Amino acid sequence: MIYLDYQATTPLAPEAREAMLRWLSEDGFANPHSPHRPGRAAAAAVELAREQVAGLLPPGGQVIFTSGATEALNLAILGCGAKRLAVSAVEHAAVLDTARFADPDCAVLPVSSAGLVDPSTPIPAGTGLVAVMQVNNEIGTIQPVEGLAEAAHAAGALFLCDAVQGAGKLTPPASADMIAISAHKLHGPKGIGALWVRDGLELAPLIHGGGQEHGLRSGTLSPALCAGFGAAAALCTSLRESDGRHVENLWDQARALFADWTLNGSADQRWHGNLNLRREGLDVARLMSDCRTVAFSAGSACASGSGRPSHVLRALGLSDREAKTAIRIGFGRYTRAGDLERAAAAIHAAVGAQGAL
Fold it and tell me: What is the four-CA torsion angle of 146, 148, 150, 152, rounded to 10 degrees?
């Protein structure tokens, strides 16, 4: 199987797996909130991981471990107490749905045909929180988050950034007030994420019961998950430049292999590990069924099976028909050039069988 769905999840780094194993063994299972020596050892592993994850984020804030980015975004949106919200039209459902729950009249900031929010877009009066993601999970566009954060602050609002797809790859959004990230999108384990909260900002907890995580997220932490997250984060820090060069080479190769397809979203203001393409007349469901040796996506994994056209592609101005002819190919650290060549051959053969070439 050729894996090309890095936006859905990334392969677990061997170093992250190794870091986890000690805390899954018979002498490393202690509760990190217990005061005895094994508990203190587990707690030390958690704090080391916290420092490693903090290395991906701006200074001047604290890292709160959560079960993933969805919980982190819920904690930020619901915990900040904002009554009026504004979010971009291309946000992940974890932001869109939570924002609409908190504010049924939530303002939606439009994007251009390239998939970008203009920082000069008016923010409605009285808005308490603006949320715009750093890198879009479906089309890979990189938003001008620093300008958007500045605009939010000028309007008297906090700025929340979903940095799930950008963490470990791009410079973190330094002007954000809250940042959500997820371990499994940067070669760490599933089941753990984090919310970075700027110093001085107070949130109300969503989960009560023990007061862990600075009183914001009660519950026993998993030292194994924390250690895996921390090791993956540290690896991203040390390999960021080489990972970036590798992705750029893969992007150039993939663009050549799919030169006659239409790219969705900006080609330049984009994370180049995301190739979202469309082709007139393509039956994507049939394509995915016929390409059983290639793992790729028809859109966000979180919305797969819904049958609805992508809200992201519709926000770009695509029709429902056009949006349903798009596929997403994602690659990264462990993708080889030969993987792309074989995958492209399989996809092109399946497309040709449809008569869509």
Answer: -140
- The label of the residue with tokens 């094994």 reads 38
- In SS3 terms, 198-220 reads as ECCCCCCCCECCCCCCCCCECCC
CA 163 to chain centre: 6
Residues 176 and 101 occupy one common structural domain: yes
Residue 16 contacts by C-beta under 8 Å, 6 or more apart in sequence?
187, 188, 189, 228, 229, 231, 232, 235
Task: Indicate the Cα dihedral angle 176, 311, 95, 160, nearest 10°.
Answer: 10
Residues 6+ away with beta carbon under 8 Å from 246: 332, 333
Domains in the chain, number: 2
**302 carries an active-site annotation:** yes
Rg over alpha carbons for the chain, rounded to the nearest Å, is: 21
Residue type, 268: D
Domain range for 246 is 2-8+240-354
* Residue 309 pLDDT: 82
pLDDT tens for 264-297 read 999 999 999 999 999 999 999 999 999 999 999 9
With contact defined as beta carbons under 8 Å apart, do 197 and 17 qualify? no
Q: Is 120 exposed, middle or buried (0-12, 13-18, 19+ CB in 10 A)?
A: exposed
Q: Is the pLDDT of residue 55 over 80?
A: yes
Average model confidence (pLDDT) across the chain: 95
Q: How far is CA 254 from CA 14, 45, 261, 274, 355, in A?
A: 26, 40, 11, 10, 22
One domain for residues 253 and 128: no
Catalytic residue among 80, 106, 236, 302: 302
Given the structure tokens 């973190």, which residue do they identify?
A: 172
Whether 134 is in a domain gets the answer yes
Q: Note whether 154 and 183 are same-domain residues.
A: yes
The Cα-based distances of 308 to 286, 305, 311 in angstroms read 16, 8, 8
Specify whether 74 is located in the same domain as 190. yes
Same domain, 175 and 268: no
203 with 274, same domain?
no
Residues 268, 341: one domain? yes
Note whether residue 52 is domain-resident: no
Q: Which two tokens stand for residue 115?
A: 């998939």
244 shares its domain with 102: no
